[in-house]
Amino acid sequence: MWANPLNPGDTIGIISPSHTVTPDDYAKIISGIEAKGFRVKTGSRLYRHTYGYAASETERADDLNEMVSDKDVKLVLFGGGYGSIELLPYIDYEAIRRNPKLFSSHSDGTSILNAIYTKTGLVTYYGLPPRLFEDIDAYAYEQFSSHLVRRDAVHFVSNSTWYSLKDGICSGTLIGGYTLNFALSLHSGYLETEKDRKYILFLEDHEKFSSVAAVSMYLSHIEQSSFINQVSGLLFGNYSDTLSQQLLGRLERFGQKHSIPVAYCDDFGHGKNHAILPVGCRAVLDTKNKTLRFLPS
Fold it and tell me: Which element (helix H / strand E) includes 29?
């Protein structure tokens, strides 16, 4: 299921499921979105600090659910941090089925994006947090436009060098996000996969958050789940400014062990590039020729 694309003048709703914010934090973000010709609506509880580190899980979920029921809001946009997994039992998935709209986030937002897709079948978008609109660059804005506005993205547009760690071609449904959140959510009841379907897994992490040993542990958790039998390929995003040979070695072993294509790039994640990956979209990954093609629904 696909939500309708954005049109100029449409309203973008901003919430904060994963961290505390202040009006000053979001002033430039809101101005940046409005400068691109869109309206902005902020969650009524956006600036609450109920727990100190965040508003309560029900307050944060109420903001999300209210954006879903608001007919003027076409895109629900939120960033990362910690704690989005706390909201999952309180999201009104039935309302999302009735009122499908665009959802975009990254990092800790992984938990919500995957839960919405697996609970409702709605395609969600990984890679675009609100903070990019403070001073969005040409690459990120073209990603935003091609996926969410024009809806004409057919080929993944790279802005970095790809490294094929296991050559091959695979097809499947795109699913993934931030490595820790994906591993935590897997088989939780909020990230359930279809047993007869193949998935292209995309993951990202960063050295400022996780050592290679930690990333390896998250990958091992995924490998030890039954989901690994449905993974047809892996694309890993930016981990560090300088190429980590340890991480590349771990990813190469992942591909060899499971006989699936694996590639690394700097096009998405916590680095300078912010490509968008549609969670739930069918795709074809060719690691030898370094391409990812999105298929029509």
Answer: helix 23-35
Question: Does the model's pTM come out above 0.85?
Answer: yes
CA pair distance 156, 274, nearest whole angstrom: 12
Distances (CA, A) of 26 to 15, 40, 42, 169: 11, 11, 10, 42
Task: Report the SS3 class of residue 167.
Answer: coil
Same domain, 57 and 179: no
Active-site residue identified among 18, 105, 107, 216: 107
Mean pLDDT of 40-59: 89
Q: In what order do the strands lie in the sheet with 124-126?
A: 39-42, 11-14, 73-77, 102-105, 124-126, 277-279
**270 catalytic per annotation:** yes
Would you state the pLDDT for residue 91?
Answer: 96
107 flagged as catalytic: yes
Clarify whether residues 183 and 71 are in a common domain.
Answer: no
Q: 234 and 127: one domain?
A: no
Annotated catalytic residue: which of 18, 147, 204, 274?
A: 204
22 pLDDT above the threshold of 90: no
> What is d(CA 233, CA 172) in angstroms, rounded to the nearest whole number?
8
DSSP 148: I
Nearest partner of 120 among 200, 295, 3, judged by Cα: 3
- End position of a domain, from candidates 89, 116, 149: 149
Is the same domain home to 248 and 138? Answer: no
Tell me which residue range forms the domain holding 59: 11-149
Q: Where are the beta strands (DSSP E) in the chain?
A: 11-14, 39-42, 73-77, 102-105, 124-126, 163-166, 169-178, 199-204, 231-238, 262-269, 277-279, 282-286, 291-294
